[in-house]
Specification:
single chain; alpha/beta; Rossmann fold; about 50% helix; elongated; DNA binding
């Protein structure tokens, strides 16, 4: 059986206690290892140059150079390096800025013990890690565009699809949506698939790209 290669992680946060906590979460996993620690964005860039790392986990707010600035620099310096933003801010604007800076995911510190490992693995599969509030923001923005006539007619949603989309935006699971609308889970899944098709998307990563392309993300 082939052993999964260990993901080498660069961790940057200006609080030593946070770095220690993150290291404890990550180092419990056999396929993840923190190999370098930085106290700010500038140090993170120096360490990325000096170390062979696969993934950078960056705090958004750091002295000298923020995580957002560091992410932009790292995208140029090491294009193959995956980046996750780690933050205490459940803030849509920060999330949008993180996407534009090249981050593949956005993890809230308050739930890092639950989400961080999954986000690291998703990043290494080139899949985005979107916390529920971020998905909600993208969906609501899309619905606003539809209502204001900014989407072409062939992309317009049916009343039922919009109903499903609203419930998704409110964070309901497929099972809950099925029960609320008195339809089968299979039908909910079909509506979800139709929504993605009408948006011209295949998955969440393309939803993110759509949001940037359609101007849902403020410059």
């Amino acid at each position: 059986m082939t052993q999964t290669p260990t993901v080498r992680i660069l961790l940057a946060d200006d609080h030593a206690l946070v770095r220690r906590g993150v290291r404890l979460i990550v180092d419990r996993e056999p396929d993840l290892e923190v190999v370098a620690e930085a106290g700010d964005g500038a140090e993170a860039i120096d360490l990325a140059r000096a170390n062979d790392v696969d993934l950078a986990v960056l705090d958004i707010a750091m002295p000298r150079m923020t995580g957002l600035q560091a992410a932009r620099e790292l995208a140029v310096l090491k294009p193959g390096l995956r980046v996750l933003m780690l933050t205490m801010h459940d803030n849509e604007q920060y999330f949008f800025q993180a996407l534009k800076a090249g981050a593949g995911g956005y993890v809230l510190k308050s739930v890092a013990d639950r989400d961080l490992v999954a986000a690291c693995r998703a990043a290494m599969r080139d899949e985005p890690f979107l916390y529920p509030g971020a998905v909600t923001a993208l969906i609501r923005n899309y619905l606003d565009r539809v209502r204001h006539g900014e989407e072409p007619p062939d992309r317009m949603l049916t009343a039922r699809e919009e109903e499903v989309l609203k419930l998704v935006a409110e964070g309901h699971s497929s099972k809950e949506i099925a029960e609320m609308l008195f339809i089968s889970i299979k039908t909910v899944h079909r509506h979800r698939a139709n929504l993605l098709h009408k948006l011209g998307l295949r998955d969440r990563l393309e939803l993110t790209r759509y949001a940037i392309r359609a101007g849902l993300i403020e410059p």
